[in-house]
Amino acid sequence: MSTQDNDGTTSGLTPGVSFGFWGDTKAGTGVFGTSAFGDGVSGLSNDGAGVSGKSTLIGVKGFSTDSTGVSGESLNGNGVFGFSNSGGDGVSGLSNDGSGVSGFGVNGVSGESTDGGDGVSGKSILGNGVIGVSESTDHTHGGIHGINTRGGLAGVFDGPVQVNGNFSATGTKNFVQAHPTDPSREIVYVALEGGEAGTYVRGSGQLQSGKAVLALPEHFGLVTASEGLNIQLTPRSEWLQLYVVELDTAQLVVREAQGKSGWFDYFICGVRRGYEQHEVLRTKR
Q1: CATH number of 198-271
Q2: Domain ranges in the chain?
């Protein structure tokens, strides 16, 4: 059985060949399906591709107002396979309220690029370009897992990165800055590490008649626990016998044993509020 297209091209069922349904047109759509509640186009294959489309723009395109734009199922090959050789999308999905492309299986959505492009690419105007969710209860799987097998970078972020939770790394935490005079080199500083979630504030103070009262920054008190504060005092220009009269997260009071005036530097360390019981040694995850 076959049908006659508006441009005179014949399409329809072709028994005995490799395609269950075949369509060809020089101006319109090779195969077009629309459904108000089901699948616009559905393909099933036992050995090849459920639906295969080839175009210089979009290989396969499906649109549905209530269900699945394109649905494909295969017992041994690809449920849906799209190929494009002219800068378009192999498979393109559009949804007004759900997912443009949704995948369910051992790998929900799998993408591969062989020519310097993106294996999987996502873009959003107001939401998340790509979102990954995992329900794994161990610490070896994550919502997003990036792997590089050739020594390059497993992940690249151009812009600010926010972590809502703890951040762990088996290597160092660095900041990198361009060399000011040699463009072939860069400066790599490593974050200070220790066995606590430490905070600090530093500055200079002046003694008047052997006494200095200094107000500490508000932000230091907002994030630092009131217990466990330590301080270092260093006199400037001359020897001063300094000692601490009062120290909390809001104020520092320093005296000089002989009542001298002068300048000194201070360095105060504390622990982040809410993280006082940080576990340094723990069971391996």
Answers
A1: 2.60.40
A2: 198-271
The whole model's pTM is what? 0.70
DSSP 216: P
Report the 10 Å Cβ neighbour count for 14. 14
Bridge-based pairing state of the strands 70-74 and 80-84: unpaired
Separation of alpha carbons 143 and 156, rounded Å: 16
Q: Is the dihedral of CA 117, 119, 124, 129 positive or negative?
A: negative
Rounded Cα distance between 13 and 35, Å, is: 20
Kindly calculate the radius of gyration of the chain based on its CA atoms and give it in whole angstroms: 33
Provide the pairing of β-strand 89-93 with 58-62: parallel
Cα distance between residue 81 and residue 90, in whole Å: 8
Most confident stretch, 45-49, 123-127, 133-137, 197-201: 197-201
Length of the chain: 285
If one counts every other C-beta atom within 10 angstroms of the C-beta of residue 211, the result is 13
- Cα angle 205, 210, 212; round to 5: 35
3-state secondary structure of 152: coil
